[in-house]
Amino acid sequence: MNEERYAHRVRQALNYGLKDIPPAASRRLEAARHLALAHQKQAAPQMAVAGFGSHVFRTGSHIPYLKQILAVLALLLGMWISFYWHSVQYVNALEEVDSALLTDDLPPDAFLDNDFFEWLVDDSSED
């Protein structure tokens, strides 16, 4: 409260002495003020997402590292989508092989025979 009272008293003293400043000095002070305001850093505009919870996505948010957290979450989501996509492709490839084996002329019991398996291994090594 003392700082506010002190600032108020300083402002009153400056306003009181304002009428004693010569007009030329007043113009120079005004020009210097405009120049200082032009060089002053502009406050960054706060962007917000419309809708529920928009206070979380403002640039001046109270949550530290919000952008980094969102980037890591986006990366993890991308990795999960990639893993899911590749697993679906793998299952589809296995499905094609299984359906080709089941529609072949050989009975499924032939694939369980050890002699047939050895014949397949020997036959594939000759190619």
Automatic annotation (TrEMBL):
The keyword Transmembrane applies. Pfam families: DUF3619. InterPro entries: DUF3619 (IPR022064). Keywords: Membrane, Transmembrane, Transmembrane helix. The chain crosses the membrane at residues 65-85. This is Probable transmembrane protein. It comes from Dechloromonas aromatica (strain RCB).
